[in-house]
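Section 3.1: Structural characterization of target chains.
Under the original work plan, the team committed to producing a structural model for every single-chain target entering the pipeline before any wet-lab resources were allocated. The record below documents one such target. The sequence was received from the expression subgroup and is listed exactly as submitted; it comprises 176 residues.
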Amino acid sequence: METKILYHGTNKYFDTFENNYLCTKDSIDQYGSGFYFYSVASKTSMHGGLRVYAKVDINKSLEHDDQFTLTFDQVHSLICECTDLENVLSNFGDIDYEGFDEVLECAANQYCDIQFLDCLNMLGNDFFKHDCHILLNAFVKITGINCITDLSRDIYVILTKQSIEIIKVVNELEDN
């Protein structure tokens, strides 16, 4: 595990990162759902007047364009975390006619062999619209990956709030 000091820009003061800000109109989501940070403090200014200093534990990270794909078993496990699974699975087949396990297998097969970030975004849209933190927590548990990076743009997307400890929040104008 690697611990880094990273920076987050915002217009709203807060003292903890909350899951209810994932997948909202206020979130960026360019690299999927998660909490977005930079390793250079000055880059936060485009996101608001407040700068959050945070200690972040990174267990394992992947670059956003890595061709890593999830296995059938991993996808199956992620889908099974859906809180409204039977209802959502009805979009993939007739559970009463085909059987729950058959429809679940059919659904899971549709997300295999897809680049991991696209897969997560698709699973989030199809199974976890309002609960993407459940998907992200399950993804971290299953893969050990808790950070998506775009190092060419100095972006770190931390997938779970448990990996983040806020050190301080300062008004960017007062910090200069």
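The mean pLDDT is 90.
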